[in-house]
Amino acid sequence: MPSTLGDPAEAFGELESAASIRAGRDRPGKRPGRPASWLDGWTLTARAPRLLAATAAFFTVLAVSLYRAEVARGAKYPGHADPAFFYNVAQNLHAGRGAQIDYVWHFLVPGTPLRHYAFDYWLPLPSVLMSVGLGVGHGLPAAIDVSVVMAAVMSASTYALTRAFTTSFWAPAVAAVAIVAQPVISMFAVQTESAVYLGAFGLTAMAAAVHARRRLALWVVAGAAAALANMSRSEGLILMGIIGVAAVVWTERSRWQVRVGLLLLGYLPVAAPYFYENLSHFGAVLPPAATSFPFITQNEELFSRHVDRSLSGLLGTGIVQFVNLRFVALVHEVRVAFSAFTRTDAVVLVILAALLISRRSPRSAPMGQRVLGALRSSWFVPVGFVVALFLFDALVAPVVAGAGATVKGMVTVVAVPIVAVLVALAGSGFRQSITVVSCALLVLSPIAALPRISKAVVRHNNGFGQAASNLGPALKREQKCLDRPVVMMTRNPWEFTQATGVPSVQIPAGSVADVVAVAREYSVTDIEDPQIRPQLSDLSAMLAAAGPLTLAEHFGSRRIYRIRATTAGHAHC
């Protein structure tokens, strides 16, 4: 009977048999003595094949990282929303201004001033590490270099995670190379984004937790890495919960109280400064904006002044919409999961998974014992995280997930099926040709797509930033004309303020009265025509007809209006 650690079919959700559970064979103390596949039958010294494969993987990942760093030299602007935010805060940290931003992009935290503590929605670690990169290098490329390093750390963590499940010398190396260039990772590795940070620290936490079944002290490492993942993206808290359950239900080495204690010994000291900052700013250990996520039924409600947090707000227009919204979110997650890989890799993974599952003998244990076996399996940590993440995104925060959170979560998720398939393949006994061709496709297909994706992302982000930066000369003329600081109301405050340095405020989703009230609250001088929102498509006409706006001629063809209520008596031209 194979142990849970060495049984690759657990990757596909197969559960332990009743006999295995009763015999206590869920403990991964011993590895199978025979080779996991024909490739492990080489007659070289025991460590030479593994060292050779690891070296080849290292230099491949290094080459990919150097290429990404070179592409990043062409980055002039960080891009739209998240990357602009993280880079803007990193700039402020590096310049000694602290974790501050000079724009208001959401109204989920009432009473937020124009200049305020940045991390009331997104999390701090990416900006903190990017600021370190700015101290070593110069400008945006130096900040992106940190993301490139995080992608490389993901590769190393994937190697370690695969090593926890197989004695194969080649499977960890193939997994490390296959993961580093998948499209979803190539997309975020050349941006100042948080997704690769979650991937790097999240996969490290998974690997440490599984290896901790043999080395008790690694629970501390798992806790510390989970804390870093938690400070990178909110999904890290889900991962910590899964690892915490594993620490309780796994049965080897010591009592569960010791394992949980070691896990918290790693987690709490790392996360404590972050929790303290939240308590000092918000009176809560987590960012307060997240409490609104379940009640948001449309994406634009993220920018509403008032989110209805009642039961009626949760249900929207009724139970049918409530259920339909979550069903659509689940379908969206599945579609995004497939698009996270190259088409070739997605097909290869599905075919291999189907073949491997078909070779499994049916289980006869009762359902309760099979569930217990799944919880005690080492696969519970990576697979449990994927399942919990999908369920949370679809059931608790479907709109926020659909707006981008799901795609970013896939950066971590893609490693799990790659590891599972390769571990199963290593122990399958498939013919040599199937193994070699499958591995070649999993590696070469994403690497071939790497240049196109990386360059397209940098070009796209430069376009966003340049469009905002082009307003710079006009803003200077407007400020001179008004003889007072300009505050712009715009749909894209993130990249606007990052590129121009001018404070800005999000155009609220709501009525004309809401727009005018927010403009007065923040002393907005100018507002960009908000044609992006259907419900506000005629806002400029309504406001102009009502008298509070006048067209600001300094901006040429860009329809930007001066707000009379806050500029009256200031205009000198």
Automatic annotation (TrEMBL):
Transmembrane segments: 48-67, 117-136, 169-189, 195-212, 219-250, 256-276, 337-358, 379-401, 407-427
Statement: the UniProt record of this protein carries the keyword Membrane: yes
Keywords: Membrane, Transmembrane, Transmembrane helix
Keyword Acyltransferase: no
Residues in coiled coil: none
UniProt protein name: Glycosyltransferase RgtA/B/C/D-like domain-containing protein
Species this chain originates from: Jatrophihabitans lederbergiae
